[in-house]
Structure prediction request, 400 residues.
Amino acid sequence: MSEKIQNIPITKPWMGEAEAEATRRAIISGWVTQGPEVAAFEQEFAAYVGAKHACAVSNCTTALHLALLAVGVQPTDEVITVSHSYIATANSIRYCGATPVFVDIEPQTYNINPILIEDAISDRTRAILVVHQMGMPCNLKAILEIAHSHNLPVIEDAACAIGSEILWDGQWEKIGKPHGDIACFSFHPRKVITTGDGGMLTTNNPEWDKQFRLWRQHGMSVPDTVRHGAKQVIFESYPILGYNYRMTDIQAAVGREQLKRLPEIVERRRYLAQRYQEMLADVPELKLPTEPAWVKSNWQSYCVRLPAKSDQRQVMQTMLDAGIATRRGIMCAHREVAYEHETWSCGSEKENCHCTKGTCDRLFESEQAQDHTIVLPLYHQMTQQEQDYVVKVLNMACQV
Ligand SMILES: *Cc1c(COP(=O)(O)O)cnc(C)c1O
Prediction:
């Protein structure tokens, strides 16, 4: 008997009674904003990725902002990154008053092309912000080599990459250890684990970790957790300009439960991704994602490049009509109205630059990826029957 399958979402968080119980625990405790649950979540997160320090914040965008500030990014500086990412990556650079310099991606991994970085470095370059796009680790070895030779810090936008791994000196290590200087994670529901919204910074540098903790709570010299427990009156002071980038204890309590589920989630996603690889191998001209031998993705997104003759919107509409949600490939910041004029650079000298609104010669692969790839549904609870159905409909949609 074949049951009718309908409404397959692009993703679905895997949470339940344990998370509901955790929010209850935080609420009944009487301490609801950044407090003991946040501290415990940070320790457990640091242990999971193998970092010395983990600092929880309100989301990954605020994490990126603080990471850039920590390495000294200032107005008029340049930061090398990709346009082909969620817009938060480039936005965080502009929050510092700095200019994003966009480098193109590799068409196979959708990650920054290390060969192009050197050329984009100028005397104003202050940092390199790389992305592990869709959970696929970027070529950190090659990137770090270039960065070190120019004395530049590397920040990892690991928003999608919790649970992803990279082969490092013969050992499999988690993204976030960190391999660059600072790594930033997201717990938005589109990512692999979620706290509703939330972010985390990991680093091995104790000074930066201290800075993050000051910045996230208004620059307050004495955290309110300390004042609350003190037997003597303490007056706090505000030595620096800070922000309110706190995570709440309610969110952190959920995060701790999600962290317990993470190994199972990653295993399941890898299994489903492998199944897609096998079942989609026969679709003519469809290009499947490639995982270099030295990385293991968490498959936060499973992205396919459509046959050249296929129209992206049409394929997506055909799938939607069949009850299957998809998304177009990762956006390009440089094509958005918010990125007009002088807000970004592609590294060309002004007189050699032929960029017009919406297109840039130097970002060809980024634009191609946005226009010709789609992201397929993939979530922990997805059944084989649902996945078979997605494959069947995609196969049909690609034939027309
Ligand atoms: C989701 C995402 C972000 C933003 O994360 P938030 O937690 O929503 O702020 C940043 N960078 C990348 C690559 C992302 O995918």
User: Anything to note?
Assistant: The CA atoms of residues 77 and 316 lie 40 Å apart. Residues 59-61, 85-86, 88-89, 131, 157, 159-160, 186, 188, 199 surround pyridoxal-5'-phosphate (CB under 6 Å). Residues 17-399 form a domain with the Aspartate Aminotransferase; domain 2 fold (CATH 3.40.640.10).
